[in-house]
Amino acid sequence: MVNSPSTGAAGLPDPEAGLTGPAAAAEPSAPPPPARLLLVDDEPGLRAAVKAYLEDEGFVVTTANDGEEGWSTAQSLLPDVVITDVMMPRCDGFGLLKRLRGDERLGGTPVIFLTAKGMTADRIAGFQAGADDYIPKPFDPDELVARVRNVVRRQERLLAEAARFADADIGAMAKQITEIRSMLGSGGVKKAAPDVKLDFTPREASVLQLVAEGMMNKEIARRLETSIRNVEKYVSRLFIKTGTASRTELVRYALEHGLVD
After folding, report:
1. Comparing C-alpha atoms, which of 95, 98, 76, 80 is closest to residue 39?
2. Helix 141-167 vs helix 228-242: angle between axes, to the nearest 10 degrees?
3. pLDDT digits (tens, 9 = 90+) for 168-202
4. What domains, with CATH codes, occur in the chain?
5. How far from 106 is each of 86, 110, 113, CA to CA, in Å?
6. d(C-alpha 170, C-alpha 168), whole Å
7. Top-confidence residue, 149 or 247
8. Per-chain mean pLDDT for the chain
9. What is the pTM of this model?
10. Is 28 helix (H, G, I), strand (E, B) or coil?
11. Is 21 helix (H, G, I), strand (E, B) or coil?
């Protein structure tokens, strides 16, 4: 194993508009927390070597011996990236990937296959199964680090973009929700007879309640310990089940029919 110095990016100043002069020098922004990696491989020697190298590069690494242990660890750790071998006992990489993609909290977690199966057909199968990257063994440690960092940066951009859209027009939406509650309290919105029966899942009902409380998607995601993408999926399902087309209409419908507190 060849060691190399850490290449983590240095923190850059966070400029403030309108500040001038020596006393107005911008303070450096706080560095982001290190990415949490879950490394799953049944080869103890390789697992230890890769873990040590990634930790030298500034990552926080948790390991698992096979896909079964990897799945259990992922549920409690909620890692930022999963790096997994393909050929393992009990549960192989494809089985682990399928479980991750089917879980509402882990479905969007980037997964990198690290495997001795490096044929083109194998790589295609990995990508078709939903893997984000595929690194054949033997591999260059520096290439592994570069690919992990690339996946982490891509995920950060996606989450930032989702948060930006989630925050759009939140002030106007909160005002509309307040108006609806006011109308309901003053009798301006009549409650329908309690004969509306909608097949909400427990998670959909929770999301509906939090939407009615005026929470934005990223707040709901934080409260329910899930991803913004999943919250958007639940809200879309609520639109379909209630026949509404906006959050305001959804809240009005929920208040009219006593679906929320």
Report:
1. 80
2. 40
3. 555 666 666 666 666 656 655 555 555 556 778 88
4. 32-164 (3.40.50.2300), 168-256 (1.10.10.10)
5. 19, 9, 16
6. 5
7. 149
8. 78
9. 0.57
10. strand
11. coil
- Which residue, chain included where needed, has tokens 């998607």? 217
Neighbours of 256 (CB within 10 A): 16
Phi and psi torsions of 82, nearest 5°:
-110, 125
d(CA 204, CA 233): 10
Residue type for 22, please? Answer: P
Rounded distance between C-alpha atoms, residue 29 and residue 117, angstroms: 42
Q: What's 225's DSSP letter?
A: T
**Is cis: bond before 15, omega within 30 of 0?**
no
Average pLDDT over residues 146-153: 91
Are the CB atoms for 57 and 152 separated by under 8 Å? no
- Sign of the Cα torsion 99, 104, 105, 111 reads positive
Lowest-pLDDT choice from 71-80, 176-185, 230-239, 252-261 = 176-185
3: pLDDT strictly greater than 80: no
Q: How many CB atoms lie within 10 A of CB 244?
A: 16
Give residue 221's pLDDT: 86
Please say whether the beta carbons of 81 and 148 come within 8 A: yes
Stretch (H or E) spanning 133: strand 133-136
**204 pLDDT above the threshold of 60:** yes
Between 33 and 10, residue with greater pLDDT: 33
Contact criterion met (CB below 8 Å) for 117 and 151: no
Burial level of 202, CB count in 10 A (0-12/13-18/19+)?
A: exposed
